[in-house]
Write a structure and sequence with these properties.
The complex is a heterodimer of chains A (163) and B (262).
Chain A: H1 6-11, H2 18-45, E1 56-58, E2 69-73, E3 78-83, E4 86-91, E5 102-104, E6 109-111, E7 118-119, E8 125-127, E9 136-141, E10 147-155
Antiparallel strand pairs in A: 1-10, 2-3, 3-4, 4-9, 5-6, 6-7, 7-8, 9-10
Chain B: H1 2-14, H2 16-21, H3 30-38, H4 57-60, H5 63-82, H6 89-101, H7 106-134, H8 142-164, H9 169-182, H10 189-197, H11 204-235, H12 247-261
Helix pairs in contact in B: 5-7, 6-7, 7-8, 8-9, 8-11, 9-10
The chains are: A alpha+beta (163), B mainly alpha (262).
Chain lengths: 163, 262
């Protein structure tokens, strides 16, 4: 490279500076790379496929449940209740901190072993640290006549399934 | 006999191999002693010279050193336990039981790890109470207090992640409850819960994530912050000793200054 003549040196605009330009480019690309790293890390850490039990449960024939009975399915964490008004399904996971509650036949209540929350069989809260009642879950009868429950879909309480 | 051993030790310390490792030499002068500290990668974090009253038992009750001691026990026993433990759903609980009943010294190592973990949490709190009530967190040591708080959080997270690994009922429900607490964070709570467990429930992914956090991520973070914590002791003027602060004099000065302003 030949030495810059005074004329070319004067041509440079006073507010333009090669060092500042390269610094901006450098920091900018670093910032983009950092943002990309955050996004890719987040995506990598969120599994796309989960080997968890399906949210849809086939509970079998509705007639197999006795009238006024509460049946717990431990594997899926739900209660299937057959009341006078009809069938309904409750989420057995306590609304306090996620423990699995249990049905007490003698007392006729649902109780949580972790922190002592108590619920009626309609999910209504009796006492305890739980902030909300147990969730009612969507139920329907399949084409084969089986009672089906979708654990991932909550419904407002007291919507009985009449068969 | 002792004279002979001493002579042998001196000969060893003067040998070329020894001098290639420890370069400070065999002398016993103040300079040699200072160099022995300064030229050792581990000891150079500390001051070459300390006041006698700083290393007295009454100054600190050695609570920080004892905490570090439990940490070293946990690292060593933890690495040994890793040799028999598989972080997988079918094997985790059985491996823990094997360690207790089948592996030679397994019960001893597992209990040593457990009890040291409990003791470390207790000692961290004791250390912080001692620092707090003596006022040792004040200027110029306030940043080291902040690093100490980070180390407290790392200790609690280590304790929490290790709790899941036995994969028994207590572990499973404790982590179910504990991870549900993270759902309470505004807006992103459910996302944090999902990322922490690697799913919607405590399952194989959660066990593996907690294992990696417990055995790799958190210990590395702890070692890094412990090193900075120790180094800051030297940089902040050594361990805090009450007599070394010219406090009453200063208090009087500021008091008189305040009256003058009036």
């Amino acid at each position: 490279m030949s030495e810059p003549t005074p004329a070319t040196a004067q041509k440079l605009p006073s507010d333009f500076d090669r060092r500042a330009f390269l610094t901006t480019i450098g920091l900018g690309s670093l910032g983009i790379a950092a943002a990309g790293t955050v996004v890719f890390s987040y995506e990598y850490l969120s599994p796309n496929v989960l080997y968890e039990p399906s949210a849809i449960i086939n509970a079998g024939k509705p007639e197999s449940f006795a009238l006024n009975s509460v049946t717990m399915d431990v594997n899926s964490g739900i209660y299937l209740v057959r009341a006078d008004e009809g069938y309904f399904a409750l989420n057995a996971v306590c609304t306090h901190l996620g423990c699995l509650t249990a049905w007490n036949q003698d007392l006729g209540i649902i109780a949580c072993p972790c922190h002592g929350s108590k619920f009626r069989r309609t999910g209504e809260k009796i006492e305890g640290p739980a902030p909300k009642p147990l969730q009612w879950l969507k139920t329907w009868v399949s084409d084969e006549g089986d009672l089906m429950v979708d654990r991932s879909i909550d419904i407002p309480p007291l919507q009985y399934l009449r068969i | 006999m002792t004279v002979k051993t001493a002579a042998m030790v001196d000969k060893l310390r003067a040998s070329r191999v020894w001098r290639s490792v420890f370069r400070s030499g065999t002398g016993n002068s103040t300079l040699h002693r200072a160099l022995a500290i300064q030229q050792n990668i581990f000891l150079h974090l500390f001051s070459a010279k300390v006041r006698k009253r700083m290393v007295r038992f009454s100054a600190t009750w050695y609570l920080g050193t004892l905490t570090f001691g439990t940490f070293l026990i946990l690292v060593i026993t933890g690495i040994l336990l890793m040799l028999y433990y598989h972080p997988s759903v079918p094997q985790a609980y059985a491996d823990m039981k094997d360690l207790q009943f089948v592996v030679s010294s397994g019960l001893f190592l597992r209990n040593l790890h457990r009890w040291s973990a409990q003791l470390m949490v207790f000692l961290v709190f004791a250390h912080m109470f001692k620092v707090f009530y003596r006022g040792a967190y004040r200027t110029p040591r306030e940043f080291n207090w902040v690093i100490g708080v980070v180390l407290l959080i790392i200790t609690l997270l280590l304790s929490y992640t290790g709790y899941l690994l036995p994969w028994d009922q207590l572990a499973f429900w404790a982590i179910t409850v504990g991870s549900n607490l993270s759902s309470a964070v505004p807006f992103v709570g459910n996302k944090i819960h999902f990322l922490l467990l690697g799913g919607n429930q405590v399952n194989a992914n959660a066990l593996l994530r907690f294992y990696v956090l417990h055995c790799v991520v958190l210990p590395l973070a702890a070692i890094l912050f412990i090193a900075v914590h120790f180094w800051r002791i030297r940089k902040d003027g050594g361990l805090y000793v009450q007599q070394s602060e010219p406090k009453p004099q200063q208090a009087k000065d500021t008091a008189s200054a305040a009256t003058e302003v009036k």
